[in-house]
Amino acid sequence: MKLAKMKKEDLELLSHKDITYYILEEEGKMNTADLFKKVVTLLELPNKTFEEKIGDYYTLLTTDKRFILLEDGNWDLRSRHTSDKIVKVTDDEDEEEEDEEIKEDTILPDESEEDNYDSGDTDDDDDYDDANEDLKDLVVVDEDELEES
Which NCBIfam families does this chain map to (predicted)? Predict the structure, then answer.
């Protein structure tokens, strides 16, 4: 669909998102200002509209799933960009994070094996036995026994 050949009345029936879609489809990637300027020009809106509504237009583009903001600041149709690239970037980041975690968990060369070895010291077990000795004099009393007294 050639936007330049469309009547103004037909263009006015389209949303800004739809006009943007057709612009990107015909002309390829563009930055936000150029896209909105083209929409304003096609709809023959005053330049004041461009200045007042560019922020709303940017929000509109970010919320529509048909469009994607590229690294260079240009907008393009999401359908032209494969999700493999997006997944690959995510996978690379995950691998880097895992590598960092592994590096943090490794034993430093100045640590000896003795420092990392549990000798099997059972001093903690002695503390547990002392606690049991304190509890041996305690008696469990039923509620019925309490009521009888």
Answer: RNAP_delt_lowGC
